[in-house]
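Bit of a strange request maybe. I'm writing a small parser for structure token strings and I need a real example to test against, not something I typed by hand. Could someone generate the tokens for this chain?
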Amino acid sequence: MGTTIIGVIGAGSAAPEMLRQAEEVGRLIGRQGHILVCGGLGGVMEAAARGAKLAGGTTVGILPEADRSTANQFIDIPVATGFGEGRNVIIVRTADILIAIGGEYGTLSEIAFALKMQKPVIGLGSWKIPGVIGAETPQDAVVLAARLAIQRGKGSS
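Reply from user aminoacidic:
Good idea to test on real output. This should exercise your parser:
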């Protein structure tokens, strides 16, 4: 089984409430000992990584650029792809479960890839489309992600 890798996806620029929720999601992921994977840049990605780091968690940033130094300061393991938006596939492939917080078209593409790969997606103020499981709070989203990971044999029990 092992450690669960939870992907947090969302816009590079977001409203303060979305950023607060992203940081709380990250904090809960870090506190529970899961690994957080994200796009490694700003906005929702940075807020979630900040929360995870402040809680002692491990963060992985899958970057669109070919330069690791573009990662935000809360990323432990920057992965420089040089693939632009194509890195969205790598984020989804890496994660066991994804939590979408708000988001724009890049987030929608990640949701689509996840659903195509039959990976659970939890939405927190995000796209309301078939296959996305809605959550009301950051706590609900992370608890549900952990539960789904265990059910799928991808998480710690």
